[in-house]
Amino acid sequence: MPSDADILLTASNLSRVLSDRAAVHDINLTLRRGDVLGLLGLNGAGKSTTLQLLCGALAADTGTVIVNGHDLHDEPLAARAQIGYLPDLPPLYPDMRVNSYLQLCARIRRLHRSAVATRVEAVIEQCQLGDVRRQRIAELSKGYRQRVGLAQALVHEPAVILLDEPSNGLDPQQMQEMRELIRTLGEQQSVIFSTHLLAEAQTVCTRIAVMHEGRLVADRAADGSDLGTLFAQIVNTGKTDDTDLASRQSRVDANNRDAHL
Amino acid sequence: MIGVIARHESASLARSPQTWLIAALLAGLFGFLFLQQLENYLTVQSQLALQDHPPGLTGWMAARFLAPLAIVFTIIGPLFAMRSFSDEFRLQTWPLWQSSPVSTTSLVLGKFLGVLLVMTLLVLMSILMVIAMRIFIPVDFGVLASSALGLFLCAAACTATGLYFSSLTRQAMVAVLASLALLLLLWLFGSASLGSLSLDGLKHLSIAEHISGFFQGYLRSGDILWFVLFSALFLILTIIRLDALRHTGH
After folding, report:
1. CA atoms A119, A142, B95, A65: torsion sign
2. Interface contacts A/B by beta carbons within 8 Å
3. How far apart (Å, rounded) are the C-alpha atoms in residues B59 and B37?
4. What is the pLDDT of residues A91-141, one digit of tens each?
5. If DSSP codes are grouped into helix, strand and coil, which group holds residue A194?
6. B133 in Cβ contact with B35 (< 8 Å)
7. How far is Cα of residue B68 from the mean position of the Cα atoms in its chain?
8. In chain A, positions 186-245, which contact chain B (CB-CB < 8 Å)?
9. pTM (2 decimals)?
């Protein structure tokens, strides 16, 4: 039976309007330890903006985010220390070597100096970067860069891992390895990853939240039978049935309330 | 945390061939100017001896060799600082800092100190040339120390200015040009006039007005405070600008 102590992330009534990007409206999410949540939606649905709001890279207009007991607004540093974030383009310094880059990331995530070497070793092994650890990032293939990006998000053992389309640009084998890794991560931490592929989300996730035009229109178990229909409707018509949207939103909110209680 | 960021910033500058190229050019320039002023001193030494209070060699070098270097540091401060934030935006590494438990103040101070460390090494390089004369003649360390402090404060102010403009744009060159435009304007303020109307009030904003005393061996607390406040102003503006990015989103 999951307890409140297992709740690692709560987002309540999160909204943000941006002039040049997808806005998000009234997002409610609760994530427990062991959850792997797929944030599914078309391009421009607001997935990346939502992840930016959850990691604190972007300030919300309204709403709160609580990460492992720390309010992102009131205790931003403590909350951000609990988050590992991989943006859609991995934040890499091309002139650095993999090893040094991960050491830097560990240090700026407030890992104690004595723990840095151990953790860097661990993520290098976890993300299979042993062969390229002394190479400059500029010399790496796209697949390896993505893995280095993932390693920087994991190096400080965050409670919540946010991955923005982590399998983008990877070949099928690398995609498979990435999915396997995300599943493993979900065993101890909680993971949110965005994708526009329903099949990918169903393969990796325990839950899927569908986003459309900045709103969460579904949040349920990954094997939910109507997810395919709903997503197909969004893909084919570019919209959900408006009369259905309000009831879906209220169901999402009710699910989150239940999860919170 | 500030130390970690400062080390990262100075290491990043050290990895850049551009830094080494600028350092090599400066070494050449400093050497040329030093030898030129040394020769000038030897030429006029006999005439100087007729004066009531002739300047010593250290005083001469401080006024004729080190003082003009303040303009050089005004130019290279923004050159070294230009990539600090512009590159973070251009390489899309900015989310790494935004999502990390690093305060904007620590980030700005870390980057400032990282660039300033490299600038300080260049200041030391110029001072060491004058100290090298000690092998042959006595050197006035008081004048040298105040000159070094003047150059250091000027370098700090120009680095802070460069850092601020770097936070405004992803185009490093735009950041450099904007910084230089402002800093050169501040150098010129001391001699500003509008037709017959003299703009003496602007003298107080002039870098030239506040730095000249250091090369004569005078340490005025007002001048030191002016440079500290100038640097602090641009560092605070940088912090405000970067904090605003979380709200504006771009």
Report:
1. negative
2. 69
3. 12
4. 999 999 999 999 999 999 988 888 999 999 999 998 888 889 999 999 998
5. strand
6. no
7. 12
8. none
9. 0.84
